Amino acid sequence: MGIMHSSFTWKHWIGLMLTSAAYFLPYKQLASMAKPVYSDNGELLDGGFDLSTGGICEYLYDVIYITVFVQLMSIISEKFWWTYLVIPAFAGYKISGLLRGTFFSGGSEGEVEDDKTRKKREKMEKKASRGKMIKTRTR
User: Fold this and answer.
1) Is the pTM of this model over 0.70?
2) Distance CA 9, CA 25 (A)
3) What does the pLDDT look like over 26-85, one tens digit per residue?
4) Alpha carbon 2 to chain centroid distance?
5) Is 61 within 8 Å of 50 (Cβ atoms)?
6) 45: enclosing H helix or E strand
């Protein structure tokens, strides 16, 4: 083996297993999402999920990219392993925004709109639908 045995500790083995799982799990999820579904006679029922769209695919790609970054930078310093905290921190951020919007919203859906506000909103909608006019000078 080309690695000095004394410099390769149990922490490195755990890191190798962690990063291998961080590659394997998102890759398998992406592969299963993109897999087409065929009927018994061979007709295509579902072409699979478009992986270029945002959403969960974007997050899975981010996990893979962060894993590559951590693996390469951990060659320089072991402190780059702290970069993995970005993943749960971002998940917590997204979940807190979801919970805040769900449970702590202002309740604007049930409010009755007064006549003045309704007229102002309708005027703004009418103005937006007209489009912007460009004034030009003729000579």
Assistant:
1) no
2) 25
3) 999 988 888 888 888 888 888 777 777 778 888 888 889 998 898 888 888 888 888 888
4) 38
5) no
6) strand 44-46
Question: Tokens standing for 21?
Answer: 């799982």
End-to-end CA distance of the chain: 83
Three-class SS state of 99: helix
Identify the CA nearest to 61 among candidates 115, 53, 126: 53
The closest alpha carbon to 69, from 56, 59, 82, belongs to: 82
Cα 62–Cα 34–Cα 63 angle in degrees, nearest 5:
10
CA angle 125, 120, 102 (to 5 degrees): 75
Q: What is the DSSP letter of 3?
A: S
